[in-house]
Design brief:
This protein is an alpha/beta fold. About 35% of the residues lie in helices and about 25% in strands. α1 links the parallel β3 and β4. Bound molecules: zinc ion and fe (iii) ion.
């Protein structure tokens, strides 16, 4: 793995805010201080501003799925900067792109960047995530304390996708595409009112959001402690889902399905 001059392999990525709650992640190239890669640029303008302010050149664009808030700025940025575009093979991209499927690798050797592609269907059917340098860019699949809505896939598909993500190491940094953490934690507290990690995180996130600060990236290790969608095996989570469903549930995938439907109607 490429190392920065400071000797650390930790990837540098900063959020560009767009729309009401999107984060477009701007990744710094470890080997080229002026080069950057953007993930899911739903809007070109805030990305242009960030590139200009920080004196960066956009070299590549990574797309996780086809929704407009993730691809709206792709064509304009690709054209203006001549940036290479990468996106999911099973979804429609707004411009020519290198199409990626599960197991593929995005290798930007001159920038010192390499990502492995994971298929994570559920939110959309062709949704992919990019894993590399101890970081996961997961679009609308995993959120802090929550997960994406099922627009195209089934609960079983999303559960399987989250299980694949959960197999990554605890220290994996999770770069989600939306600031949904506070409302997700309110739901988590309804599911597990006795989980001290949920309640403590809810308090700290309330403070952060009170001053409009970002709550990301998270890590997988943190998420395991308070994200109900990664805790379907936990007896208290299962009991809450069974109480909600009014019936016995037969496994973690069924618990997941009940939680996801419960969250859809939760205010
Ligand atoms: Zn989406
Ligand atoms: Fe989105």
């Amino acid at each position: 793995m490429a190392r920065t001059r400071r000797g650390s392999a930790m990837l540098e990525a900063s959020p560009v805010r767009a729309f009401s709650d999107n984060y477009l992640w701007l990744i710094r190239a470890p080997l080229e201080p002026k080069a950057a890669v953007v993930v899911d640029p739903g809007d070109a303008r805030p990305v242009e501003t960030a590139l200009h302010d920080e004196g960066l050149e956009l070299r590549a664009i990574l797309v996780t799925h086809h929704h407009a808030d993730h691809v709206g700025g792709v064509a304009a940025l690709a054209e203006r900067h001549g940036a290479a575009v990468f996106g999911p093979a099973r979804e429609r991209m707004p411009c020519p792109a290198r199409l990626l499927d599960d197991g593929d690798t995005v290798s930007l050797a001159d920038l010192g960047l390499e990502f492995h592609v994971m298929a994570v269907p559920g939110h959309t059917l062709g949704h992919i995530a990019y894993h590399g340098h101890g970081a996961l860019f997961c679009g609308d699949t995993l959120f802090s304390a929550g997960c994406g809505r099922l627009f195209e896939g089934t609960a079983a598909q999303m559960h399987e996708s989250l299980q694949r993500i959960a197999a990554l190491p605890d220290e994996t940094r999770i770069f989600c595409a939306h600031e949904y953490t506070l409302s997700n934690l309110r739901f988590a507290a309804a599911v597990e009112p006795g989980n001290a990690d949920v309640l403590e995180t809810l308090e700290s996130v309330r403070v952060l959001r009170g001053r409009n600060a970002i709550t990301l990236p998270s890590t997988l290790g943190r998420e395991r402690r308070f994200n109900p969608f990664l805790r379907c095996e936990v007896p208290a989570v299962r009991a809450a889902a069974e109480a909600r469903a009014g019936s016995t549930l037969h496994g973690p995938a069924d618990v997941f399905a009940v939680l996801r439907a419960w969250k859809d109607g939760f205010r």
